[in-house]
Amino acid sequence: MPFDAVWHNIQVHAGQEFWTVKDHLFTYEAHEGYIRPSRTNQNISQSDFRKAYELFPLRGPGEIAKLVRGSAYVYAVLSDPRIHD
Predict the structure, then answer these.
(1) Is the pTM of this model over 0.90?
(2) Is residue 7 within 8 Å of 49, Cβ to Cβ?
(3) What is the distance of C-alpha 38 from the center of its chain?
(4) How many CB atoms lie within 10 A of CB 11?
């Protein structure tokens, strides 16, 4: 799936519940070029999602921890079937 379609899906599913690998529930707000997860004040940029998506499939957020901000959230969102199917 092209990344533009993935990013569109990320924006469409803003406000819905997602789970991290460690079973932390979160939602996120989608803005132009970034999201903001409910469990942090960090913004996670579209470019961070693109970097991680280019490496999929991944085994977990640890594989992208040094590459992107908010790796647990990035991994949780990108791994969700609502986003990539």
Answers:
(1) yes
(2) yes
(3) 12
(4) 14
Give how far the C-alpha of residue 14 lies from the chain's centroid of Cα atoms, to the nearest Å: 11
- pLDDT tens digits, 36-65: 999 999 999 999 999 999 999 999 999 999
Query: What are the tokens at 44?
Result: 């996670």
> What is the Cα gyration radius of the chain?
11
Give residue limits of the domains in the chain: 3-84
Q: Provide the b/e sequence for 27-63 (b: ≥16 CB within 10 Å).
A: ebebeeebbbbeeeeeebbbebbeebbeeeebeebee
